[in-house]
């Protein structure tokens, strides 16, 4: 049987389940898989975290070095986020330069950290216009079982919360903790048969026509958003998605981030 035929059968199967109010793994539409978070898992990094969303696994490392600020933000540190889709994580991933999917997800993770004001970038300034701390957020996918973006976002903020600025190593005084002032959490929705699922599996992501990621702050405000796919969503469904994002985000924060 051709891959196209298998894909069509898979799509029909998942669509028919959605019409019955079901998902292939038995979860409700708004039910997350089990989440596990481990921190300080990389000795050589300034901060690190490993996140499990069901069988999806990502590891995030934080490195800092002294660099030159951007001309339009001479008194602020710099954030650079990258993501590696390792071939060991999925047969769909290939070795080589970052693919468009990896670049897009890294940008969304970066946007959530940046637009939420998670890091007080002014405190990363060493000498205005000359030297600042550059924060490198490196995301590596170990196993892709769906919803990489939310797992990567949680790993990024958790790793940042454990990070130490290596001032002593660089001859810049005493080491200090990363100046964290916000804990953004992302929640991604996929449209399957007119229904929106959260924490989608690989199969659900492969047949959805719309994907929406919403990043919320501690106070319930929205700091970032990303939509992909040709489909659309109604105002009613969008507002419900925003509400659910804040609700789930608060639970994840309380259970996993506030204890770091």
UniProtKB/TrEMBL annotation:
UniProt domain Exoribonuclease phosphorolytic: residue ranges: 31-166, 183-246
The entry's keywords: Cytoplasm, Exosome
GO MF term set: mRNA 3'-UTR AU-rich region binding
GO biological-process terms attached to the record: rRNA catabolic process
Keyword Iron: no
InterPro entries documented for this protein: ExoRNase_PH_dom1, ExoRNase_PH_dom2, ExoRNase_PH_dom2_sf, Exosome_comp_Rrp42_subfam, PNPase/RNase_PH_dom_sf, Ribosomal_Su5_D2-typ_SF, Rrp42_archaea
Location in or out of the cell: Cytoplasm
GO CC aspect terms: cytoplasmic exosome (RNase complex)
SUPFAM superfamilies in UniProt: Ribonuclease PH domain 2-like, Ribosomal protein S5 domain 2-like
Family of this protein: Belongs to the RNase PH family. Rrp42 subfamily.
Quaternary structure (record): Component of the archaeal exosome complex. Forms a hexameric ring-like arrangement composed of 3 Rrp41-Rrp42 heterodimers. The hexameric ring associates with a trimer of Rrp4 and/or Csl4 subunits.
Known role: Non-catalytic component of the exosome, which is a complex involved in RNA degradation. Contributes to the structuring of the Rrp41 active site.
Name this polypeptide is given: Exosome complex component Rrp42
Source organism of the structure: Methanococcoides vulcani
């Amino acid at each position: 049987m051709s891959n196209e035929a298998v894909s069509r059968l898979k799509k029909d199967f998942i669509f028919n389940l959605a019409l019955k109010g079901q998902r292939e793994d038995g979860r409700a539409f708004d039910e997350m898989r089990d989440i596990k978070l481990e921190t300080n898992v990389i000795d050589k990094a300034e901060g690190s975290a490993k996140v499990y969303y069901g069988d999806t696994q990502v590891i995030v490392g934080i490195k800092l070095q002294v660099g030159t600020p951007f001309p339009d933000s001479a008194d602020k540190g710099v954030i650079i986020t990258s993501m590696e889709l390792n071939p060991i994580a999925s047969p769909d991933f290939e070795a080589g330069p970052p693919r468009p999917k990896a670049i897009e997800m890294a940008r969304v993770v970066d946007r959530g950290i940046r637009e939420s004001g998670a890091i007080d970038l002014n405190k990363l300034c060493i000498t205005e216009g000359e030297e600042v701390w550059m924060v490198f957020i490196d995301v590596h996918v170990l196993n892709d079982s769906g919803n990489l973006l939310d797992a990567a976002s949680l790993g990024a903020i958790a790793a940042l919360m454990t990070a130490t600025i290596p001032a002593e190593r660089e001859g810049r005084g005493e080491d200090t903790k990363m100046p964290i002032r916000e804990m953004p959490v992302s929640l991604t929705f996929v449209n399957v048969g007119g229904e929106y699922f959260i924490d989608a599996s690989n199969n659900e992501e492969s047949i959805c026509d719309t994907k929406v990621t919403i990043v919320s702050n501690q106070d319930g405000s929205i700091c970032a958003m990303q939509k992909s796919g040709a489909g659309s969503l109604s105002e009613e469904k969008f507002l419900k998605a925003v509400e659910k994002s804040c609700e789930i985000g608060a639970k994840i924060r309380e259970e996993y981030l506030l204890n770091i």
